[in-house]
Structure formats: C-alpha cells, structure tokens
Amino acid sequence: MVTSFVILILGFAALVWSADRFVYGAAALAKNLGIPTLIIGLTVVAMGSSAPEMMVSASAALAGKTDTAVGNAVGSNITNILLVLGITALFRPLSVSSTTLKREMPLVLLVSIAGWYIFSDNYFSFFEGIALVIGFVVFIAGLILVSIRAKNEADDPFVSEACEDVPDNVTTKSALFWLVIGMILLPVSSHFLVGSAVDIAQYFGLSDLVIGLTIIAIGTSLPELAACIAGVLKKEDDLALGNIVGSNLFNILAVLPLAGIINPSIIDPSAANRDALIMIGATIALIAMSLSFRGSRRITRVEGGILLVSFLIYQGYIFSQVA
C-alpha cells in the first residue's frame, strides 16, 4: 500500500509537469505557425489546466473504470469551486470585473445541469459523449467569435491576461521538443496514477466513483489552486477566477465525454442523486458570489470560508457513506 501511495504522488507530479510542458510546447508552436494570440490564449492555454483531468479520465475509461472517470470530472468541478476558490478567497478577496466571465458563468450552470441530466438514467452512452463534444466545439467557436468581434474585448482583463500567458520567442525546435515530451509523459503518468488510485480504493473499500471524487479530483485540481493563488497574489483576480470557470466548462464538455465515448456503461446512481446536484449547487453559489449588474463584485473572505467549510462537509459526508 505504501508503494501505491508513492506511485500516486509521483504520478500526480509527473502528470502536472507534463501537462504544463505539453501546453507550453503546443502554444509556442501555434504562435510560430502564425495562429493569433487571442485564439491560442482562449483555447490551448485555457485548456491546459484541464489536461490532467482529460488524461486521467481517458486512462480510467480505457481501464473499464467509467465511474472513476465520471467522478474525476464532477469531483474536479466541485473541488475547483468549494476548495480552490474557497482557499483563494481566504488569501485575498477576489474582484470580478470581466465581462467574459460574466457571460460564461451562466453557461457553467447550464452544462452542469446537462451533466446531471445525462447521469439521471444511470447510463452514460456513446452518443451522449459525442453530444458533449459537439457542445464543446460550439462553445470554443462561439468564444473566439465573440472575443474577436467585441469592440472592448481587448480591455477585458480575463482575455488580456490569458493572452499574456502565451509563450513568446520560443524556437520551433524547442516547442516541438516540449510538445513531444508532454505527449509521451501525459498518458504514462496518468496510467500509473489511475492504477495506484484503484489499488488504494480497493484496499480501503472505496467505490470507483468515490476515488474519482476524492483523491483523483483533488490531485488534478492542484494546478488550479496554484494558478489561482499566484493570480490573486499578482492582483490578476479575473484570470484566477477564469481558471476555475474555464476548467469547469472544459471538465463537462471535454473531460466528461471521454468516459462515455471510450467506455459507455452503467454508472453509479450517486453520480446523479448526490454529486451532480452538489456540483450544480456549488455553481449557483459561485454565480451568486461573483455576479453583479452594477459594476464589479468581490468574493469576500467570509464567502471563501463558507465554500471551504462546505467542501469539508461534502467530503466528510462521502466517507461517512462508505463507512
């Protein structure tokens, strides 16, 4: 069991590092190929924080662990809002002024409800996975189109800060090197991570869904936590919150469908009866705390504390059901 925990920790570290290198190489290569910075920032860079979830879900689905893949996507969304945003707001209250985020937050709620609807019959089909992917393509195309056409979009802090993360002055040879390194290490690290997580789950009597909701979801959300804390410390509040909003959208539209496409199967009823509802509730709380139709809005330390306590209560409830 000690060996499984060591492999799990090393797997998380390798997964996060390789995802970062993959995104760095892909973004730099796209830049060198002449793709506009705005498009790279809103696609490759924005998707980077969800790369670990995508690889873990794909590996879990390939191993026949669809519940783990589902739990990873749903659990990551819950963790992003309740744990990551909660801790970040405790560091420093977040000001929300981005019009892009104000447009996307209701969309996060909409796709969360769609996820619940998919789970409601306790079966995740291939065509449901394809439908989510189509939704993802439409979302990305719409986001780029709106960002290009909007007159004041260049002044939007979320868009400008996302574009600033696109690497510059990187040679094509270096970009290809890091892209290949990431492509090799991502599947390898995710394979060992899922394998060790399954061993730990079996040892403690945890279900595939619970292991995805807890250990894996928290581990794959650590990059968001680091990015958000770094963002608020640099007073880039909209980028910090944008990491959460973007990650949650990608988790439902790009990560979750991998489970249904790769391994369509029956899923644990708790995914719909408990976890998807918690995800929807957390999303509603995020919207209530973030949106104001009279200018900017602040997510306070008190609200951050409420989110963090809610996460601890949720985790305690999950493990109490296992016991």
Task: Tell me what you see in this structure.
The chain is mainly alpha-helical and 323 residues long. The protein contains 13 helices and 4 strands. It has helices spanning 2-32, 37-48, 51-62, 66-91, 99-119, 126-149, 157-164, 172-204, 208-220, 222-233, 237-262, 270-290, 301-322; strands spanning 94-96, 123-124, 265-266, 297-299. The strands form 2 sheets. A two-stranded antiparallel ribbon has the order 1-4. It has a two-stranded antiparallel ribbon with strand order 2-3. α2 (37-48) runs antiparallel to α6 (126-149) and α8 runs antiparallel to α9. The longest helix has 33 residues, at 172-204. It is globular, with a radius of gyration of 19 Å. The mean pLDDT is 83. Its main location: membrane. This is Calcium/sodium antiporter. It comes from Pseudoalteromonas neustonica. Keywords: Membrane, Transmembrane, Transmembrane helix. Residues 4-144, 175-315 form the Sodium/calcium exchanger membrane region domain.
SSE diagram, text form:
Elements: H1 2-32, H2 37-48, H3 51-62, H4 66-91, E1 94-96, H5 99-119, E2 123-124, H6 126-149, H7 157-164, H8 172-204, H9 208-220, H10 222-233, H11 237-262, E3 265-266, H12 270-290, E4 297-299, H13 301-322
